[in-house]
Predict the 3D structure of the following.
Amino acid sequence: MSTGFPWLTVLIVWPLVAAAATALTGLGRGRPAAGPVTGGGRFGAGVARTVALVGALVEVVLVVGAFTAFDTGAAGTHQLAETHAWIPALGASYALGVDGVGLLLVALSVGLVPLVILAAWREQGGDHVRLRRYLATVLVLEAFMVAVFAARDVFLFYVLFEAMLIPAYFLIGSFGQGAQRRYAAVKFLLFSLAGGLVMLVAVIALYLQVPAADRGPQTFLTENLTGIALDPTAEKLMFCAFFLAFAIKAPVFGVHSWLPDVTQNATPGTSTLLICVLDKVGTFGMLTLCLPLFPGASRWAAPFVVVLAVVSILYGAILAIGQRDLLRLIGYTSVSHFGFIVLGIFTFTSLGVSGSGLMMLNHGISTGALFLIAGFAIARHPRSSQLIGDFGGLRAVAPVLGGTFLVAGLSAASLPGLSTFVSEIMVFIGSFARWPAAVLVAVPAVVLAAVYVLLTYQRMFTGALTTELAAARDLDVREKTVAGVLVAALVVLGVAPGPVLDYVREPGAVSVELVGETDPPAQAPTGSTDEPATEGSAL
Amino acid sequence: MNDFVAPTIDWAAVSPVLVVLGAGVLGVLLEAFVPARARRTTQITLTLAALVASLVAVGLLWERVSEGAVSVVGGSYLLTPFGLGIQAVIAISALLGVLVIADRTTTGQDSFAPAAAAVPGTTYEDEARRAGLQQTEIYPLLLFSTGGMLLFPATDDLIVMFVALEVLSLPLYVLCATARRRRLLSQEAAFKYFVLGAFASALFVFGVALVYGFAGTVRLQGVVQVLADPGTSPLGTMRGLVVVGLLLVLSGLLFKIGAAPFHTWTPDVYQGAPTPITGFMAACTKTAAVGALVRVLFTLAHGLDADTRHDVQVALWVVAILTMVIGSVVGAVQTDVKRLLAYSSIAHAGFVLVGVVGLDEVGSSAVVFYLLAYGLATIGAFAVVTLVRERTVSSDDRAGALGDTTDDGVVLGEATALAQWAGLGRRAPWLTAAFSLFLLSMAGIPLTAGFIAKFGVFSAAVEAGAWPLALLGVLGSAVSVFFYVRIIVFMVLTPPSDDEPGAVVEAAEDAGSVTGPAGGAPALTGTATRAVVARTVVTVVGSRGPAAVAIALCAVGVLLLGILPAGALDLAGQAAQFRP
């Protein structure tokens, strides 16, 4: 299977190298003997930031290289594959490979990191040592994120799934800005670990479902575990264990309570990586593990999951409206959006599943934009307040900030013309064919989304300028770059989603086939779709 | 019967044990003949050399034993691949443990009392300290103990096993009493360990007696034969004898392992003993005792009928569940680092037992790997504890107190109260990183040795059909993650208290509120801690080398076994070719 240049391994190793380089810029600066409490000159920090940014940008170039090596014609198969023996005794291999959805998510992770680094340029209260460590941890997390989306071995996936909690934990707990960051970090870790450990038992049980004679050094490869004969009860139990882990990660209603605490207490950059990328592992896992490994149980559980998803959609949106903390609000909007993604996956229609695949990407861009631009607004507040009520009339002094925030917000509300619209309409149409009632209940969430976005915008940016914000300036070049790239991505993918759709279309069809369903025959094309939607329904 | 025939002894097979015991005897002689100045260096060199030689002997024997078990003197010494694997783990752990023990740190003092026999607080003790006496007898004692451990899992004879048990235990009782500081606590620990240990030994012997009554032999192989053919022994039909005997023998072994309900000595002894000894004891004793337990259980399990076997398994289930629950839950409310690590080691005993319940080869391979992973993390963690100390604050000492300098203020004993560890990450980033790594490994986080180890024992349990036990184990490990993470929170996320004593007190109170559920009794110790903290600050003393090497080796080992475990797993797999 190993052919050609090992793009994925390089994509995993390079951020680690960059992280080491970033961390090492702290050496040899004549650290005072008293220890690096607040030490470190401006020069040192500048170097660390630059090294981290350059490292992240090189990674972007590498991912472009990976795209050129990827054959879009066969986006449904795992490409760029590498398989090496890792722990033969346990049947685990170091096996990488991505299909279209995996590659898009790798690209999302890699693309967001330089923006997060840029956004964090002046964070950590001017403590350069902390900033250096923060950036190094971000880069380590990047390596894990790429690896987990590229893992083609259930054991390897599990290892990465759990191991990436550690850098994430430190990002929240060590470098967060909220008063309760330690609480949030521990809550995050315990929720995730509890789910993960239950999944571990299922991973072991799944391995043991393979007849002893067939167990070999590569038993844990996803393709080797797909389609084995499973005892129905065991299959259901294992599905539940996997689904629990992924639902906590995603997060689905019921096990979501860690998420608002995290977004409230972490820096916007950390939240971006956590919510926009790391949590996608949950939905990605449902798509690439739950469905193919446990097709029968997936069909069995689908009605329950769909109900949960619809509840998430509405619950997240309603709670978002009531939030006073800006970052908490964004957290709740994500609960709502993850509901859409889960709904799409469990439609078992190629349109819905590929819509979910696309939505994972779009939600990442859209929510990332919201988090980072909200972070810029918060940085302008003299007390760094996160409360929406402390802002007002900011548009008067910071028009660009206001404008980009509005675009990002509207993308969360799936305004036509922005990329999120394409994926959301795909999920809706795809689901309507299978679960019309669910769609009817979930559709009002679009209106609720408009409410929370516009209300927030109105409170923060319009009206009379509060005195505290009188001295606020508009975005500088660095911030404009971050906001500009994200908004441009939203618009471009919204107007011309065609090329990206090529990456999700086939994986969606393959997933539906693996789960043993077929697309419902009569897929009525919706009449009043504009250009992007026609693209979608033409699938 | 009239002619005495000298038995032919396969000396090569016994060499891993003999080298260590021989070096112990030599060490006693050195103690008498080598001048005081050179004694310490000589003893340390001898000890390390003996352990390395033992490890080399294990390595040389590996090929030969994996072709078939080697029996010496009719099974008095029986070297199976499993026994050899356990011996390897013991030798590695002991080697690392001795490195920590040998370190005098930059304070120039090791962890041992200058005159252990002196009554604490007497003038005699003061004089001994001023005279700069040092205890070099600890090294021969360590060697004797290690020799006993090496013999423990490598015999087929219950009497030899009992002798090994005593040979490994008696030196440990003495070693526990030799702490330089907190002498009363140390002596109390030793006394407790001794009394309860004697009790456990008695249970063991009584069990052996019952087994002998049943089978007319103390050889495990012989017992299996009688089980298969009851007619060969006068009491061979009284199956109850062997079951009760087996359970009593197991009780004695479970005591040494520190499994519930025989675990109560563990926290007190681990807290009171000199920390490097605690590390050595926690890793090596547990390894040896688990080895012996597996040896007895797996051998006899072949002879037992399905019903009895099932009964024994139920007993193991109960012990494993109790141990995991007690270790994890009680550990979660500890406020002292050493006690916390003690409860962690209890929980680990439970996890190891999860791997044992299947009574099959997969389990024994997982157990060997688990013990190695556990040993590395435990020795490393206790080594870190030895370096985190309290230091008195002089009034003009506020400016530089955060530094690692030990010139001003007197460095005292270890700062074991969890609250004192707040902000350690800023003072000693590398030490904190290493300690966090060990804790993460104990918690079973992937990419550390602990994960592969837990994966192994849980797989073994699931494969043996004990999936509820595995599920409980997993939940127990989720709880234990909570308390490991709590330490990391203290070290890394809690801001370091300023060195103003007042501020330190505040930090201690803050920690008290965090560890609120501890309830009434810990609140008392909390007050005591606060009184101490008010006069001292926490400092990290430098290692003179050996402990740093040990910590580094443990850390590298934990990472390597976590990321690239294939080689070690293969070896553990070979060790599991269990031929009773």
